[in-house]
Amino acid sequence: MLEARTAVKSLHAYRPPLAGRQGLRLDFNESTIGCSPRVLARLRSLDAEVLARYPEREPMERHAADFLGLNAAQVLLTNGVDEAIHLLCSTYLEPGDEAIIVVPTFALYAIFAQAEGARVIEVLSDENFAFPLEGLLSRISQRTRLIAVANPNNPTGAAVAGEMLLRVARAAPQAAVLVDEAYVEFHGETILDSGGLPANLFVARTFSKAYGLAGLRIGIFAGDAGQMAMVRRVASPYNVNAVALAALPEALRDQEYVEHYVAEVRRGREMLERELSRLGLHYWPSRANFVLVRIGAAHAEFVQALRTRGILVRDRSSDRSSDERCEGCVRLTVGSEEHTRTLIGALRDVVERLRERREVRA
After folding, report:
1. How far is it, in rounded angstroms, from Cα 61 to Cα 265?
2. What crossing angle do the helices spanning 242-253 and 37-44 adopt, rounded to 10°?
3. Alpha helices, DSSP H only, in 235-360?
4. Helix (H) or strand (E) holding 103
5. Distances (CA, A) of 153 to 102, 114, 130, 187
6. Residue 37 and residue 241: Cα distance in Å, rounded?
7. Do 264 and 215 share a structural domain?
8. Bridge pairing between strands 311-315 and 290-294
9. What spatial distance separates the first Cα and last Cα of the chain, rounded to whole Å?
10. What pLDDT tens digit does each residue of the chain (362 aa) get?
11. How many CA atoms within 13 Å lie on the side-chain side of 3?
C-alpha cells in the first residue's frame, strides 16, 4: 500500500480559517483597500495570448532586482513568501538537520522544515515577545541548517534590529538564515540596507500586504547569487503565473499609492493602540499592520461578537504556531483610517457588553 513519508504523516496541516469571510476582513492582514488602480488597468488590458503562453519570469525579476537595488542573479520571484520558505527548506535541509525558529511565529517555517525530515527547535521569545538573541545563539549547533525569523514577527508585531540578525547569520555560517520581511513596508526598516550581507542570509518579501495583491500570490526571494543559483534548481520555471507577472511592474511603479496606504495604516495603528489603552486591554506595540491584544477567557465570544457586527478578526489563542503566552489573544488587522475607525467603534461596544457580563477585565 502506498504511504506518505513518515515526516509528512506526522505534520499538522496549516488550515487558515478562510471559509465564510464576508464583511470587513481584518483577520488575515490583507490590504483593506486593494491594489493600485494602475495594476487594475494593466489586468484589464490582458488578452488571450498572454494567458495562452507559459509565463516568463526572468524579465520581471530584473524589475524586482532594480527595485531592491540588487542584481537579477540575486532575485527569484515566488508564489508568495510561502513558496520561498518551501524552496529554502527543500534546498538546504536533510533528514535529521535542525531548524531553529523563535515562537510564537508563522506556522509554515516549522511545517516546511518538518516536511523535509528536519528537527525543529523552538526558542521562546523573551518578555513581551522581544527577540531572544542570546537564547537563539545558544541553540546553534553544527546540525543547524536553517534559522527563520519574521521581521516584523507575526502574530506579535515585534521587530528585530538588523545588527541582531547579522549576528545570527554570522554565528551560523553553515545554516540558511531567512529574514521574512512580509510586513517591511509598515516597519520601514530592512536588512537589505545593512550592506555586505553574509552569503547565508536570505530575504523574503510579499506583495500580499501593502500592495493588496494577496490573490495573485507573488513574492520576492533574494540572497547571495551563488546560493540563489542553488535555490533555482528546485524551483519550477513557471511558478509565478502570467497575470501576476503582468501586474508586478505597475505595482512597483505606483509607490505613491503604496506609501499613502502605509501612512494610513501607521496612523491607524497608533489610533488603535491608544483606544486599546483607553479600554484597559493589554496589547503589544506593533511594527506591522496588525496589533495583538489579550482578551482573556472571552476571546472566542469577542471574535464572534465582532463577526456579528460584520468585522472579522483572528483568534490566535488556539493557533498551533503560538505558545501559551498567546492564550486568550486576538490579532486585529489595521487597514485604512476609515476601516480602523469602524473597528474601534465596534470594539467599544463589544468590550462594554462583555464587561457588563464580567467576561473581559480591565
Report:
1. 28
2. 150
3. 242-253, 255-278, 299-308, 337-356
4. strand 98-103
5. 9, 20, 10, 11
6. 20
7. no
8. unpaired
9. 57
10. 999 999 998 888 887 777 777 899 999 999 999 999 999 999 999 999 999 999 999 999 999 999 999 999 999 999 999 999 999 999 999 999 999 999 999 999 999 999 999 999 999 999 999 999 999 999 999 999 999 999 999 999 999 999 999 999 999 999 999 999 999 999 999 999 998 899 999 999 999 999 999 999 999 999 999 999 999 999 999 999 999 999 999 999 999 999 999 999 999 999 999 999 999 999 999 999 999 999 999 999 999 999 999 999 999 987 655 567 899 999 999 999 999 999 999 999 999 999 887 656 55
11. 6
| Distance, CA of 20 to CA of 42 (rounded, Å) | 30
How many other CB atoms are there within 10 angstroms of residue 197's CB atom?
21
Phi and psi at residue 260, to the nearest 5°: -65, -45
* Domain boundaries, position 114: 37-253
111: helix, strand or coil: helix
Question: Which cell numbers hold the place of 146?
Answer: 536553517
The set of residues, in sequence order, having a beta carbon less than 8 Å from that of 113 and lying 6+ positions away, is: 89, 93, 99, 101, 120, 146, 148
How many domains does the structure of the chain reveal? 2
Pick from 7, 166, 11: nearest CA to 97: 7
**Domain-ending residue, one of 204, 225, 253:** 253
d(CA 357, CA 317): 21
pTM above 0.85, yes or no: yes
At residue 195, the pLDDT reads 82
d(CA 46, CA 56): 15
Grid coordinates representing 160? 528585530
Residues 266, 243 within the same domain: no
Angstrom distance (rounded) from CA 114 to CA 77: 24
Give the C-alpha separation, 170 to 131, whole Å. Answer: 17
| 226 plus 317 within the same structural domain | no
Give the H/E segment covering residue 51. Answer: helix 48-52
CA distance 269 to 264: 8
Cell numbers given for 304 = 464572534
